[in-house]
User: What shape does this take?
Amino acid sequence: MADSSRLLQLDCDHVWHPFTQMKHWRCADQLIIERGDGFYLIDTNGHRYIDGVSSLWCNVHGHNVPQINQAIRDQLDRIAHTTLLGLASPPSIELAGRLCHITPGSLNKVFYSDAGSTAVEISLKMAVGYWYHSGEPKKNRFIALQGAYHGDTVGAMSVGYSDLFHRPFESMAFTSTFVPVPNPCLVVHETPAGVWPSEQEALNQSLLDQCLNELAAALKRQAHQTAAIIVEPVMQGAAGMVCQPSGFIQGVAQLAREHDVLLIADEVATGFGRTGSMFACQHEEVEPDIICLAKGLTGGYLPLAATVCSDEIEQTFCGEIDDCRALYHGHTYTGNALACAAALASLDLFEQNDLINHINQSAVIVSDRLAALHDCPHVLDVRHRGLMIGIELGRHQNTAKPFEPAGQAASQICLAMRPKGLIVRPLGNVIVLMPIPAMDHTTLGHMLDIVVDTIINYPW
Ligand code: PLP
Assistant: This one.
């Protein structure tokens, strides 16, 4: 067992953690995760916790899965990494073929990188480059959804907005146009007994129409200078687990086509089964022009991302050397061989374990167990698609009890789950649950029991 106090001291002395107020971090006793065992994380003191965030939304089959471990070891015995600049490698070739086969529509060319943010950056450059090389250099702007999160590099920040995350860096970003998303929680704070705002069909339909009309108006004004619309289909994750009513992504795709604007689907979070189909676009048979993949691509083992586009887009970058049309973009670890080997093993496991079917069965358990939260006065909405789940806390109009300042209740509740053996993380007032897709139903049920019990017994 590792020497926890020495490690903690070293951590406090030298590690700057992402998305973390380090002043507070250094005052608290932090967990150091040393090992993983299936759906559990094990800390340096030997305590076991259910991984309720899929290690930040990327783990798919569990930790220490023998088949993925073996695939990485086998590749390691051949070579760990070799560049894709001017050379090819078997695992990156095999994986590209598999990705083109499973992604929606006629996406057929894979550009690798190593994080969700880089996958998004590349998609933006592909879109602008496509129009530039097609003789329309003025089509270089983007339309995105309000509150969208597409990553933290400058381009990705520019097509998203989180006041908390991005305000100090706004001056670095380029200008994009943001259109509203049909989020019922923004307009309703009281619901009929037993029905969450996100389940109210009439409300969702009217919000859907309103939002698509606003997108149509924005496109009418500025399609001539718009390269692409970028969306997280079906569920906006980091925006607070905001579910889109059915028909939204199809409506967006149709408007993009009508106005001759590309559609980029950011499936960094929603891809690889999380919403109950391999890719969220497939729920509505939407075929984007570009799709961004990362997180679950390697089953959550190693950093790898892919931006997959149509032949038509890639063709505009083809020409003679002197034409300077090549996509001059790349990263040192682009298409890393170990990561590609892990991704291939992960895709095999999807098939062998009929994982999409399992996820849809798990989603029924989620609905059933979380229905118990209907009686909790400070639970404003519970929404999920597949195994992406948000429990929004707030103050119902029909309760006299005050609600704690933003974020506090959600983060206190998440911390209270730890001694019970569960790790989850909030996003503002939303408790986010992201069970590992392959999680067995007993562990999932146990996880949901901890969540419900902790929320109901919280001293509001
Ligand atoms: N896009 C979406 C939809 C995401 O949820 C995230 C991360 O949460 C990203 C992009 C950025 O991915 P990464 O953190 O790997 O850069």
